[in-house]
Amino acid sequence: MVNSSGNQGAVATTEPAPLHELMSRILLVQPPEPQGLKRFLPTVGTWQSLNQQLANQPLLDFINGTLRGVGQVIFVNNPFSGLLILLALFIQSSWVGALALVGVLAATLTAIGLQLDRETTRNGIFGYNGLLVGAALATFSDPGVGAGYGGWVLLTIIFASLTTVMMKTLGVWWAKTVNTPPLTLPFCILTLVCLALVNWLPQPWFQLATAGGAAPETTLTGARLAAALPIGVGQVFLAGKLISGLLILLAVALCTPLGALVGIIGGGLGLLAGLLLGIAPNTIYAGLWGYNAVLCAMAIGGIFYAPNLKSIVIGGVTAFLSAMLGGGLGLLFGTLGLPALTVSFCLATIGCFVLLQRSLPSLVPVALHAITSPEEHRYRYQAARKIITNFRTQLTGALAKERRFYLFEQASTALKGELRYLFNLIDTDQSETLSTQELSEHLQQLSNGKGKKGTSDGDLTYLFSCMDVDGNGTVDFKEFCELMLRHRQLMANYNAFVTYFLPIDANDDDAIGLDEMNVAMASVGTQPLSEQEAAYLTQQVGDRPLTWNRFIEMLLVT
Predict the structure, then answer these.
(1) Contact of 146 with 104, CB cutoff 8 Å
(2) Helix/strand/coil for 108
(3) Residues linked to residue 208 through DSSP beta bridges, in sequence order
(4) Cβ(261)–Cβ(268) below 8 Å
(5) Which of 100, 161, 259, 558 could be a cystine partner for 110, CB 3.0 to 4.6 Å?
């Protein structure tokens, strides 16, 4: 490869090992695995190590997956939070809590019985729609007539199990075709079908509960509006008691404080929509104008997109619109004798996904298999912004043919001292420069007797040419330190960076085109590549594709 000073590295008959792997050998650290985008499957999920610890304990593993399914209703992948939420549902009503538990158990057991992906099942992805089916049937049923409690339990088992089947069939098709998650669509579709059959078909076994006749309130108070915020969070689970809403909000905040904050902002915007439309205070106080907005704000502003100013604002707008849409759908579904459930959340959020994919690709989504928490997503975003911004600075310097020792100049005395020790260890003739022979001897010593992978002549020549910035055939302390410091900085954020970059490789070819590079630049607020910069990168790569490893090499040596 041509480095920025115009030196041509030696051409090997085989592709050399990735530069960051070779440098990891010098530093005696484990290089990140695997090398590339396609094969990168990061460990994801809050408390994910618990999944691995319980893998060989079937009963505890099942309980863990079930509780995660409870939390996944509100994007919380944490069994302790799921337990708190389940407690909140039993506080709301023993009937609601019991049917919700039956629903999540039935859906999870169905996933296990169908031998669906074990890790997905453990993370509760097949359980949350089933829980919502149970909570909804408990809320809208009248178990005191006909088939009684047992009949509604049976209906819950049937329709909750069907949500798993739908997630496996319709959900997979939906994700591939529409390129968005199915969210709570299985819950909405199957619950509405169940309630419609009960309500419309003449039969003596099942009956829906009639709405209460509480006197309407006409006065708005600040205290009641404030209480409506956590109640709106609770209504995500069809729980309308303040204590239940507060417990559910606490469960979210324990797992993701940022997610809880974004959800409250969304709920507030839902209340605002209701106030602007002059909705009756009773309905607003009950949180019925908040729950769809809570889910929308969290989905766009932290779960499926990294939380930043742009995503949170868009999430807030989507939350507001979902509340407005929910009001209209509530009237429409009401004429049919059915509840609107989370239909407006699904429509608004999926519509936002599709719109963003087509009109704002620079707002990079989180890879679906890499979803964890808003805090982790923000960390990945900040790591990517730092690395890409630094690369842009390096690129500007390379075009101006400037010496590139900015990390060396910023390094502390202690850090330089550590690198000086390593440099002197390699510099056996104390000439203050490293030769290819000295580097070869050092790597040979590290590999002997330690089971380490040896370094070929081609790898060695390639590594040395990357270090030798001025092309004089030796590597001085500055050149050595700068590359080592860049490697250290990049590897400290490697997993976060590659995970952030996964969706940018839109065509999934494990290579980065100039258009994808510009998406990456725009996603962190950096201007797209100029013609000169694009030409420089093209010249560096030549007729080879810019694979992930070559891109990492550019980040290190440009």
Answers:
(1) no
(2) helix
(3) 141
(4) no
(5) 161
